[in-house]
Amino acid sequence: MVLEGIDRALDRCPDSRFLLFGDGSRLTPLLDRHPRLSTVAEVRHTSDVVTDDEKPSVALRTARNSSMRLAIDAVGNGEAQGVVSAGNTGALMAMAKFVLKTLPGIDRPAIATYFPTRRGESVMLDLGANVECSADNLVQFAVMGEVFARNVLKLAQPTIGILNVGAEGRKGNDAVRQAATILAESDLPIRFHGFVEGDDIGAGTVDVIVTDGFTGNIALKTAEGMARLIMHELKAALTGSFTGRLGAALARDALRAFRDHLDPRRYNGAMFLGLNGICVKSHGGTDALGFASAVQVASKLVTDGLNEGIKADYAHFTTDISEDRIEPSGQVATG
Amino acid sequence: MVLEGIDRALDRCPDSRFLLFGDGSRLTPLLDRHPRLSTVAEVRHTSDVVTDDEKPSVALRTARNSSMRLAIDAVGNGEAQGVVSAGNTGALMAMAKFVLKTLPGIDRPAIATYFPTRRGESVMLDLGANVECSADNLVQFAVMGEVFARNVLKLAQPTIGILNVGAEGRKGNDAVRQAATILAESDLPIRFHGFVEGDDIGAGTVDVIVTDGFTGNIALKTAEGMARLIMHELKAALTGSFTGRLGAALARDALRAFRDHLDPRRYNGAMFLGLNGICVKSHGGTDALGFASAVQVASKLVTDGLNEGIKADYAHFTTDISEDRIEPSGQVATG
Known about the structure:
- The structure is a homodimer.
- By secondary structure, chain A is of the alpha/beta class.
- Chain A is built from 14 helices and ten strands.
- In chain A, helix 1 crosses helix 13 (288-303) and helix 7 (135-151) crosses helix 8.
- Chain A is globular and about 60 Å long.
- Chains A and B meet through helix 9, helix 10, helix 11 and helix 12 of A and helix 9, helix 10, helix 11 and helix 12 of B.
């Protein structure tokens, strides 16, 4: 699945080269089946792996020769410009944070992903790196998301919303209320929309959705589950009658375009933001098409030199945040 | 919308009678347009209303003659057996809790709703009554949900899951981990499945999904938003080409059945569980069909005498919980 995915990704990012960390005796024969990939890929043998149920802290301490760790080390020492893994998310984050370090002003990295909306695409973070978040964490996520939307989604003035249980200022927990106050009263050059609710995600009300990792993870997976349910029901309805089958056959191209547009594999590849290096996490259960998306996400982040732009922007933003926290301006940045 | 909805609901619950609290000068002429409803409905005039942006604590203190409060009072004094409102959720919960009181052993009522799944229907709670929840709150929600699933969904042995960011025991925050430990180690006659993730909701992995009000509200609304996005995309795809339009016309009946099955108005009517009385909250933005669903939910809860069954079950369960907390048995109830 991984090698086939990388091979597919070459269509979209033909200038990429790959270091493949894993069991050489298994990887080399598999690689031989992909002649095009063979010319731009190199196997680095290691028999150590991080299992899916390994505790991140244990993996960090003991799995220094694992494929995951060696792949991250390659980014840390400049041999590679980005890492993609379909393995244990917690271990990947713990190792990436330890090896690559966070960017200046960022306490905790966040996991971000694209999300399809009625208006196109938005970005949502955090999706599970931080189960509990302070107001400061959420403010940092807002800044990371804004910079990402500007640099990667190429939006001139992305809008930011904090996910909450209502649009009114008094709704929610302390963390979201305080974060909203900081963002609304700061001088940060951010278009802070205010609170958004769950249904605003699909509606595309804002370009960046900020939330803690517990809520974000559940919201994302709930949406995926709902999409799967609806696709299942649609198929059942259309195949359940003769006219349904006939209509579906006629509308085949339209239905295929619809399905492809919402295919979760197209949105595979969660980005770790706030690290001194590119790190992308693929869904463990995806296939070659999904893994190709994750590789393309990493490749895009690397080849566009986006991390450098993001780093510069972060430095600018985080100076602003520090100043704001010492001397609140009381001025509302934007609507 | 409200009167038309009640009129529609009469098709499904013809033996119901209605007290309508609100501005008589507006309600009476509207009611005259619904001859069938007129014979079973009575207007109770009041000009006071609770607005949508009223703080619940303020509404509780000052709005003693509001339509919302008088409707709840009618349940409190036995004149009515249940109340349905499309108004301010927080105020409705605060007033209902104050007037009707919670059932023995329940610290905080929860908001529950049906959720469509691949296997039929599940029930999810809390959906916003309690933004922050302790482990004990979550355990009480599990008991309320279990009793509800048995009495209302008529499931012999409903399965219970706690919503989390992973299935493993070490995942999540303190509240979900502790609640899972209490449920797994208790002698409660409950089939506790363990943790479920967001995509398990639509998959129907368990019959009862337990979560805090912050996460539950966002998960529910995210799913609604995703459903709306998909319906929008489907329509756009089918109307975008000639063969798409032709196919859709042929498959019209199948597509209609599909749309109707997932119509969010069918799932309108959130139930307040844990109160000494029936209280149902309708979506504020729904139409007559949606309001009819909310009335039917309340009517079903009333006519089946379910609250009595639930009360008896609660008493049984809560005794068990108290005993468990004093002397943990260490025995796993079920898989």
